[in-house]
Structure formats: C-alpha cells, structure tokens
User: Which sequence fits this backbone?
C-alpha cells in the first residue's frame, strides 16, 4: 500500500511562501491521482488540492485558489505544493495521499503529515 512522507513545513509570516513535498518509493505512485489535505486544530481534514496521474488536470479548494499550486514528478515519485501569500487560516497539518479522482476517496495510508504555521 502506498505510504507517503511529507516534508517542507515550518513557521512563516503572513504573505510568505512555503513549498511542501511528498514522496513515496512505490512505483504505484505514478499510476494514481494524488492530493494534498490539511487539518487545522479542532477541524476535520479537508482536501486542499488534487491532480491527475499525469498532472494535466488540477483542482483546488476555493480557499487556496490562485495562491497554491500542486505539481508532481512521476520519474522521482514526488509531489509538491507551492503555497504563496500564506494566511493565518492556512495553519494546520498537511498530508498527501493517493485518491480516486472520480469520488476523491483515499487509496493510501496516511503519513505523519507536516506542520505549517502562519503567524506574525
């Protein structure tokens, strides 16, 4: 089963940027749609961005449209989330996972996630 390792989080001021990375050594990584999720304290986990197997179609939550960009490199089994113009409400733990594109159901195991804190 796909198991992911997230990295790249940290503390950043409002308006700043961060680039998150997601990696897995399983070749199945390159044969599935992928997504980034986040969970703020006291809230449910929500889907932030997703992309298809070849990265040709992407989709974003309204709250991050125009600020975040999702991408993948199937030759390296990695996926990234470029986050710009960060806001305090972007604070949370970010996770990546494989999904079924049609119904957004999870296909892999959850990793540890990476903490993103946006604060002045």
Assistant:
């Amino acid at each position: 089963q796909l198991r992911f390792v997230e990295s790249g989080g940290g503390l950043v001021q409002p308006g700043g940027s961060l680039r998150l990375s997601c990696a897995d050594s399983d070749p199945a990584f390159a044969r599935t749609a992928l997504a980034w999720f986040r969970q703020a304290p006291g809230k449910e986990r929500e889907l932030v961005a997703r992309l298809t197997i070849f990265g040709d179609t992407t989709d974003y939550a309204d709250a991050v449209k125009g600020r975040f960009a999702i991408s993948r490199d199937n030759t390296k089994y990695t996926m990234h989330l470029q986050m710009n113009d960060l806001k305090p409400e972007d604070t949370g733990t970010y996770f990546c996972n494989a999904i079924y594109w049609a119904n957004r159901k999870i296909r892999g195991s959850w990793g540890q996630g990476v903490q993103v804190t946006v604060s002045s």
Remarks:
- The CA atoms of residues 29 and 77 lie 6 Å apart.
- The mean pLDDT is 96.
